[in-house]
Design goal:
elongated, 261 residues, 39% helix, 5-stranded mixed sheet, alpha+beta
Length: 261
């Protein structure tokens, strides 16, 4: 019986491809990691370099240390450059109280500003026994049936905030509507709508324009304190408003005392 002939084994000349593929994979991972680390290092190095330039002065070629470099990494701790008058600290409450002469001057200044901005038809300024009343009509500050303050109203609110902040008089923000019922998801009645508008206005004055919070209050009167009859579109438009009332000395006496700053 003939014996089977055993074929000789062939040498696999392509086994090196396995090691090569592993090498390429590791090389790709290495360069990816180095690239990521280099980007982070560059950003950190830039922060440190900016910190060195900011906190060290140059006098005759010598560096003079002025503050720890670490402070640069915490923006809130960084001192303001010379000539920068802005401050992150809360504004100090004013000590002067506005009376009738100051109300008359404020009324004149506000009306002049409104005239230059073409807003006299949307804002009414009046001196009453309870103080200076600035009525902001819905048409210029809110969408119908909504409580969010329009962005374009910020310029007027900034102007009002600057004058309000000069005096210690309390400020009451009053929301008003007409007598047309509202039944929306967010505002089931005019009470909710008027209160939300007053509160949103108060938040903008406090948070954006830094009117001291302790002197501000907000309330909603709904439809129950109209300034005009609700029997015409013009009358209803006048009643849809938010009043900023800078209280007089006599009106202030009826206000609850605020917490000391």
């Amino acid at each position: 019986m003939a014996r089977k002939h055993k074929h000789p084994e062939h040498v696999n000349h392509e086994r090196w491809l396995v090691s090569y593929a592993d090498f390429i994979t590791l090389l790709f991972a290495t360069f990816t990691a180095l690239y990521a680390l280099s980007r982070n290092d560059n950003e950190k190095a830039k922060v440190v370099a900016d910190s060195m330039r900011y906190y060290f002065g140059d006098a005759g070629g010598k560096l003079i240390p002025q503050a720890p470099v670490a402070d640069q990494l915490v923006p809130a701790n960084r001192p303001k450059p010379a000539g920068d008058t802005t401050s992150e600290a809360p504004p100090q409450p004013p000590h002067k109280e506005a009376g009738k002469p100051e109300f008359e001057e404020m009324k004149k200044e506000i009306e002049e500003y409104l005239m230059t901005k073409g807003m006299l038809s949307k804002v009414q300024v009046e001196i009453q026994e309870r103080g200076l009343v600035v009525s902001l009509k819905e048409a210029g500050f809110f969408e119908s049936g909504k409580a969010d303050v329009k962005d374009e109203a910020n310029a007027v609110l900034r102007e009002l905030a600057e004058r309000i902040s000069k005096f210690r008089n309390p400020v009451r923000i009053e929301g008003h509507t007409d007598n047309v019922p509202i039944h929306s998801r967010n505002y089931p009645t005019n009470w909710e709508l008027s209160s939300a508008r007053a509160t949103n206005m108060a938040r903008i004055l406090i948070e954006k324009f830094r009117v001291p919070a302790g002197k501000v209050s907000a309330t909603g009167y709904g439809e129950f304190r109209p300034t005009a009859p609700n029997d015409s579109p013009a009358g209803r438009a006048r009643n849809r408003r938010v009043d900023l009332v800078i209280l007089s000395t006599s009106a202030e006496k009826s206000e609850p005392e605020t917490e000391a700053p």
